[in-house]
């Protein structure tokens, strides 16, 4: 099951807590598509497999998604050091909005 399926079943505006199955991170997704940022987050959610469901949220395969796409991410030039562990160290900040909307859209486009 994809994360986007869970998000779309929740009430509009609901927050979904998401953890990675490899890294100790916590990020949030919302059932909304008001702008390019929201659409990029929903696109990312459509690429993430749900590994486990909990009362408080879900666990996904974000690390594996990034690992599979390192060549595309490296080619994009988005990261000075394009390494899965380095990206995962910054992913909470990235998904919390510490990057521009255009940057996030390009990042998600690199993930297949």
Task: Considering the chains and any ligands shown, give keywords for the structure.
50% helix, globular, alpha+beta
Quickly describe the structure:
The protein has helices at 3-9, 36-47, 62-68, 70-76, 84-96, 101-110, and strands at 15-20, 26-30, 50-54, 57-60. The protein has 112 residues and is an alpha+beta fold.
How does this structure look, described?
50% of the residues lie in helices and 18% in strands. The protein has 112 residues and is of the alpha+beta class. It has one domain. It has a 4-stranded mixed β-sheet with strand order 2-1-4-3. The longest helix is centred in the C-terminal third of the chain and has 13 residues, at 84-96.
Which outline best applies? Answer: globular
Widest sheet: strand ordering: 2-1-4-3
Query: How large a portion of the residues is in β-strands, by DSSP E?
Result: 15-25%
Category by helix and strand content: alpha+beta
Termini Cα gap = 16 Å
The profile of the biggest β sheet is:
4 strands, mixed
Mean pLDDT: 97
Tell how many strands the DSSP assignment holds: 4
Q: What is the share of helical residues? A: 40-55%
Instruction: Name the helix and strand elements from N-terminus to C-terminus, one letter apiece.
Output: HEEHEEHHHH
| Oligomeric state of shown chains | single chain
- As residue ranges, the low-confidence spans are none
State the helix count.
6
């Amino acid at each position: 099951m994809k994360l986007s399926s869970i998000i779309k079943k929740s009430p509009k505006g609901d927050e979904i807590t998401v953890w990675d199955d490899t890294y100790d991170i916590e990020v949030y997704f919302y059932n909304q598509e008001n702008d390019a940022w929201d659409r990029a987050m929903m696109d990312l959610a459509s690429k993430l497999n749900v590994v486990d469901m909990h009362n408080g949220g879900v666990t996904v395969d974000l690390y594996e998604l990034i690992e599979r796409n390192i060549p595309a991410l490296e080619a994009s030039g988005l990261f000075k050091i394009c390494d899965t562990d380095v990206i995962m160290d910054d992913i909470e900040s990235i998904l919390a909005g510490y990057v521009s909307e255009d940057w996030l859209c390009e990042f998600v486009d690199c993930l297949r």
